[in-house]
Amino acid sequence: MPVHPANAARMVELLSLEQRQGVYQMEVGLTHSSGSARQILIIDEYTYVQLSMLGPFAGQRVRLSLYPKWDPFRRSFFSSLIKMNQTFSETLYYACSEEYASQLVKARQEEERPAGPEPAAQVPSLELPQHRPGHLKRSRSLRPARAILLRGILFSCLIALFLLRMDGKLFSNSAEAHEDPLQAAVAADVSSSPLINVIPVIQTAAYQSSEVPAVPEEAPEDTPEDTPEDTSAAAPETAVEEIELDGNSYEYSLPQGYVALSFDDGPSQYTRQIVDILDEYGVAANFLFIGQNASSRPAEVSYANEHGMPVGSHSWDHSDMTRNSPEENRQNLERASRELESNMNSAVTIFRPPYGAVNDELAAEAKRQHMKLLLWNRDPEDWKADNAPQVLRYFHTTDPSGGIYLLHEKAVTVQALPEIIEYLQAQGLKFAVFK
Fold it and tell me: Which spans does this entry mark as compositional bias, Acidic residues (predicted)?
């Protein structure tokens, strides 16, 4: 069964940010399921200053969110970006103008427009308020001194608001009462469609928004050890469908009614636990293993393979392969596949590039080695979650139908996995794996 392309999401990567002869511009890379392109966007001075204060960006990949928000308390727009390198990922927020927010909304709506004649569930259209406070309109003529002062004040406000929200005591009830129509529309949008993040000639996987309030630390209710049969009895039988990727595009989505789980960065100390939980519920998932990890945990590779879990490559060393030479990538992929296949009874046919970063050269090399690329369109960001409820909250606040979930072999993910599966089964979804 072919993978349905309609929900393919666009990614946007910030490539450069500069001022030329009084014109403020940013070069971005746009990626979707059929390819990638570069584009120059003209932005206002106010947004340029706000973005600049989050730099420098040299040596890092920067993903831009296409979901601006309206802050009803400060009466201004803001958006977010993710700075990434090989060792960490950091989400940062910045204020922006109404014009810039309009550009983001337009870009997203163009991508979300259904590709075929079949009617599809529509994302609520966003009507940007026409009359916003004058300081955003006047900000285009800010002088450097005023811009520096303003960004300092806004930065302080953002930190103060963040700390207060973390405390959970401020705006606990007033936020809904004062919510702006744009904010309400965006909130509905986030819960029903993929969040769009970054990338250019380098292609990255998109994911639905995980910008939901952090769940307070609380111990999940323990299931009594003497009643495990109740849990398994409640879970409906689930057939797992194998899907053959055609290899002609970067696959981001499944047809409605299907869902897929995938686990990156193993094998690890949690591999067997994850496999056992999946087995218990009668489902399966794709495991994308790193060659270096597999060399130190070969038994876990065999264990996953023997229990019917499709094992794919996540490179040898989890480096950003778009920065490598063609020969380095050839050796990297060959070494990883050789290590994995030495502990399996089948060939490696699926490849997920580290960080979701892929260009035409890397895709071509993977194809030469008889591997098809598998990305994702749902990202719970479990790798940075503090507890299982935070991971679970993502599943309960996004539409799982048609989703390919990116998960990692982490303790919090293992804790959340039984409830994740039960929730997806309760939605009547059919689980799928890719081969």
Answer: 218-229
